[in-house]
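Escalation from tier 1.

The customer reports that the assembly of two entities below gives different structure tokens on two consecutive runs. Tier 1 could not reproduce it. I'm attaching the input and our single run for tier 2 to review.
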Amino acid sequence: MSGSGRRITDEEINELVSKLQSLLPESRRRNTGRASASKLLKETCSYIKSLHREVDGLSDRLSGLMATMDSNSPQADIIRSLLRS
Amino acid sequence: MDSKSSACSSPNPNPTLGPSKLMLAFRFLRALSLVRRTTPASSRTCRGRRIERAAYASMAYTAGASRAWSRAVLRRLHHRARRRAVAPRRLSTTAGNRAEALRRLVPGGGGMDYCTLLEETADYIKCLSMQVELMQGIVDSASSYGP
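Tier 1 run:
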């Protein structure tokens, strides 16, 4: 898969890196500004790690809530409220 | 997931409940139901881990087989027997060691060329944050139902 023979231009890399920057939340984007690619990648890594932690934490919370949730009706309501947003 | 659009497109300021968010929601909620029905009520931690796996599975299935990261996630989930977090990788000199830390964080990142890695990272981040948003929404809704 790697080394496909297609020459990747610096411009393409820069575009992809700036796309990554646009995906960072506002606070993290402020940290990087017109930063180097390597600083941006570092911030991206930090962001991914924090997202992983959030999934971990939210899974734990859902587990706890599940223990207290009633049968059918609340779930139907949750689905409905999600569809409304 | 739409993928090959312009690399410099600005982020959507008003994310509506598009088709992929809806699919993600249905998949994840269905998986949550299953977890609730099949996990003993006593094991909160075990249930938490199952929910976490359901989250990554829903993400990966919704992203589809066209993404290297989603294929890697599903491979990892289906071969859960090997509990090692990071398997030793052979990084070819062509793929290089650029962005080594990023390669370890993005599923399947080890064997990609740098360009693909950046594209996969962008898609992975979009899906991850969508998943987090979904889970947070469910937690908020469920929390408001209290005795």
